[in-house]
């Protein structure tokens, strides 16, 4: 959680990089609404650049010379919500010896970025709604209502409509936030931006380590373009970062990516996986301890389930993960755990 007021210069080198049609459309809408004070809801998967987009909007707004304050809603313990958001006065509770400034006071006349709004507790949602509606809040231990003037930008990687249906997210808060919705596309939907992003990250990390900007060979680009990127732009940035460090300023080649985690390795040929056969628990687990038998049966189920979902979705990982109700990263982790290569299920492979 970041409760400090940031000067605009701190983020002057932050860019939302991309030239694909989807990114240009996104940035056009973001720039159009940046000069307004309308609340914005940014949606998208982890690692797509939601906070970078929020900073861009702040930098192009009338509040650009005012504070930008970010908070991770899912990281605030329920017992600390009020004091972190709204501050407290001396004597509010044991140990409160001096006044504490809260997030909204720190952000007055600026922008508050509410990251992971979908993780916020019901109690926190109520308090955020009051600030959105009236600009009012009460510090802990105080009888005086304070007012603040902030522009709210919220972000989530969750399906808030689904959360509304389950009663996990307040409808009134949702409609207050969802005045302008900006969807940040996952990297797999804008693969044409990978060369541009790669050059951007190479330049950044070479400068960070005092290296001359290395040449980028075509096989390096080609290997990066082969990946699925469940971690999106953040994952690509990580791979480029490591490659620049390992290169020491020498040209970047595909060989440098051989030293990265297995997820970026080329797909290995796999033998066709036979259809799952019904398990026979009594026969397969007789004579072994209960917990070992349980683990065996769970692993058998999980492996057969993953194979069935991959077959159903033609090996398209993000579709399989969505069908399974899992995150793409979690789905990839399961595949690696069981040694299953999802590309072996794609049509024509």
Automatic annotation (TrEMBL):
Signal sequence, start to end: none
Protein name: Two-component system, NtrC family, response regulator GlrR
Coiled coil: none
GO MF annotation: an example: sequence-specific DNA binding
CDD domains xref list: AAA
Organism: Pseudomonas indica
A Gene Ontology biological process term: regulation of DNA-templated transcription
InterPro entries noted in UniProt: AAA+_ATPase, AAA_lid_NorR, Homeodomain-like_sf, HTH_Fis, P-loop_NTPase, Sigma_54_int, Sigma_54_int_dom_CS
Record keywords, A-Z: ATP-binding, Nucleotide-binding, Transcription, Transcription regulation
Domain called Sigma-54 factor interaction: residue spans: 16-245
């Amino acid at each position: 959680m970041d409760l400090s007021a940031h000067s605009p210069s701190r983020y002057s080198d932050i860019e939302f990089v991309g030239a694909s049609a989807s990114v240009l459309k996104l940035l056009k809408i973001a720039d159009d609404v940046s000069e307004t004070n309308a609340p914005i809801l940014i949606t998208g998967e982890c690692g797509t650049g939601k906070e970078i987009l929020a900073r861009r909007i702040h930098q192009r707004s009338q509040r650009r010379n005012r504070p930008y304050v970010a908070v991770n809603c899912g990281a605030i313990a329920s017992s600390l919500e009020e004091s972190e958001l709204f501050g407290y006065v001396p004597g509010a509770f044991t140990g409160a010896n001096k006044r504490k400034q809260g997030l909204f006071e720190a952000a007055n006349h600026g922008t508050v970025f509410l990251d992971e709004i979908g993780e916020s507790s019901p109690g926190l949602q109520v308090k955020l709604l009051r600030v959105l509606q009236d600009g009012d809040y009460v510090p802990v231990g105080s009888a005086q209502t304070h007012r603040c003037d902030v522009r709210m930008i919220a972000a989530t990687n969750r399906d808030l409509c689904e959360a509304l249906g389950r009663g996990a997210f307040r409808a009134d808060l949702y409609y207050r936030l969802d005045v302008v919705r900006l969807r940040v596309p996952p990297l797999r939907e804008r693969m044409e931006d990978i060369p541009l992003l790669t050059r951007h990250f190479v330049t950044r990390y070479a400068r960070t380590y005092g290296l001359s900007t290395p040449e980028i060979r075509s096989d390096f680009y080609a290997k990066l373009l082969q990946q699925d990127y469940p971690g999106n732009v953040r994952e690509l940035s990580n791979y480029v970062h490591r490659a620049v460090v390992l290169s020491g300023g020498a040209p970047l080649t595909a060989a440098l990516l051989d030293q990265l985690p297995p997820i970026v390795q080329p797909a290995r040929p796999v033998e066709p996986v036979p259809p799952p056969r019904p398990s026979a628990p009594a026969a397969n687990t007789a004579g072994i301890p209960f917990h070992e038998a349980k683990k065996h049966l769970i692993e058998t189920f999980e492996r057969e389930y993953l194979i069935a979902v991959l077959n159903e979705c033609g090996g398209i990982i993000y579709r399989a993960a969505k069908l399974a109700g899992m995150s793409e990263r979690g789905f990839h982790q399961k595949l690696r755990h069981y040694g299953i290569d999802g590309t072996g299920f794609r049509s024509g492979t």
